[in-house]
Amino acid sequence: MSEIRINKKTLRIVLSNVLKMKIKCAEYQTKSLHGGTLGDVRLVTGLAETAGGEFLPYKIVLKIQKKWERFADPDSWRREYDLYKSGLGAFFSDTLRWPECYHLEMNEKETKLKIWMEYIDGITGLDLTPDMYEKAAYELGCFQGKLYAIQPDVLKNLTNLSKPENAKLFYLHYRGWDKVYNYIRSNDCPLPDYFCKKLIEIDENETEVWSRIEKLPIIFNHRDFWITNIFYTDDKIVLIDWDTTGWGYLGEDIASLIADEADVPNMVRNYQRCIPAYYKGFSEYVDLSHVTDHCIYELIFVLFGYRLCEWYLYAGSEDERKLHFDTMQKICEMEDIK
Question: Does the reported pTM lie above 0.90?
Answer without folding.
Answer: yes
